[in-house]
Amino acid sequence: xxxxxxxxxxxxxxxxxxxxxxxxxxxxxxxxxxxxxxxxxxxxxxxxxxxxxxxxxxxxxxxxxxxxxxxxxxxxxxxxxxxxxxxxxxxxxxxxxxxxxxxxxxxxxxxxxxxxxxxxxxxxxxxxxxxxxxxxxxxxxxxxxxxxxxxxxxxxxxxxxxxxxxxxxxxxxxxxxxxxxxxxxxxxxxxxxxxxxxxxxxxxxxxxxxxxxxxxxxxxxxxxxxxxxxxxxxxxxxxxxxxxxxxxxxxxxxxxxxxxxxx
Amino acid sequence: xxxxxxxxxxxxxxxxxxxxxxxxxxxxxxxxxxxxxxxxxxxxxxxxxxxxxxxxxxxxxxxxxxxxxxxxxxxxxxxxxxxxxxxxxxxxxxxxxxxxxxxxxxxxxxxxxxxxxxxxxxxxxxxxxxxxxxxxxxxxxxxxxxxxxxxxxxxxxxxxxxxxxxxxxxxxxxxxxxxxxxxxxxxxxxxxxxxxxxxxxxxxxxxxxxxxxxxxxxxxxxxxxxxxxxxxxxxxxxxxxxxxxxxxxxxxxxxxx
Lengths: 263, 257
Known about the structure:
The complex is a heterodimer of chains A (263) and B (257).
Chain A: H1 2-29, H2 39-48, H3 50-82, H4 86-101, H5 104-115, H6 119-143, H7 147-155, H8 160-198, H9 208-217, H10 221-250
Helix pairs in contact in A: 2-10, 3-6, 3-8, 3-9, 3-10, 4-6, 5-6, 5-8, 6-8, 8-9, 8-10, 9-10
Chain B: E1 10-18, E2 24-33, E3 38-42, H1 49-57, E4 64-69, E5 81-84, H2 96-100, H3 102-106, H4 111-124, H5 140-153, E6 158-162, H6 170-186, E7 190-195, H7 198-204, E8 207-212, E9 217-223, H8 238-256
Parallel strand pairs in B: 3-7, 3-8, 5-6, 6-7
Antiparallel strand pairs in B: 1-2, 1-4, 8-9
Helix pairs in contact in B: 4-5, 7-8
């Protein structure tokens, strides 16, 4: 507990030093506020425009969260299909790689054309780019079961259903979480990037990506900084939530579950 | 054998096994195991000992020859067989209790009955105090005990063991051997045990089958007439030492041939 407190205090000291350095740079080089606003101005913009910022943040959070949840649901189903046979995997796996390598920016106009700008398009983009890691990792977990565990189940005349639900699926949970962790990082970036191209531009419906574009076009650099901070916080939040879920489901039995050192 | 009127537990008649690449691993193996025997297959690596267990369990099928377990084909006899692997092969997401109950669960035994049976087995192997722990919290020896309890839970008539104690340190291994002896006194299963440890083979077996490698053939069958029940003190006796020496010599000849 004491060590944690010290770590927290240290982090605060570094943070304060960074702010001071920032302010010093402004004073020494006489930087224009629209190029680099002062920390105080950013804080003011943050507080003053908090309602709008919160709206943008929640829109992006919903898009990223929705896309991520969909990719986990669909990804697990696809992985279950992949796990059925080597033959199916050989035939379909290359398309998963395609999914990962397609430049989403290049596809965005197409999606825009098909579903129109807005939350739906952005969620779709998020879903597409976070799908591949979920499929790849879950398939890996379903397939890589110790041969003798399969033999053990066979010796007890286990049905295919028992093999899947009592052996393969639980065995895949740790790698599913690896997939979710990677996907959750991509999802937030995907949602914000998606908004730059396919986000709604109606008043009160734009997410963080759209608001960042707007703020920069209006040279509201202080607000832009506040938005970037909010985007960072969102990514951190997603990361933290997935880490917590992973810990919650795995810490009792899995060797590598994170957070094991807290007790 | 003296009990010739009882059907043998296992009958292997000129059983051969070769793998896909044509490599012969077991060559014309003949072996009859009577009910209640403790047979050890002893040999260096590559003599097909583990393959013989897989053949008896029906996990792999013979290229030629016939195998009968309790008068049935291995697949049909599965209900009567339990297999203990070299690794404890526990499910890490299940507690000790749930692992012990796995076989019963897969065979559709309902919850109440299962709980009663697993509780008495945990007591039998001395693990009641860790019933709700997860495998990662256990030592190697304890994990192996869970594996044994799980194998015994389905009341097998035949126990196949594939070097179950190979990964344990010598002291733990000796203790596990004594424990296995005790369990065998209480329950009356037949066992086929694979090892490359001479001391283990002599301590546990009623007969030792010495195999020569590539392809696996029966080199010699050594009966072990040491009195039952066997305890730790047996290892210090001259009879034990003499027999171990004889078995070692035969094993070396079989391997160097």
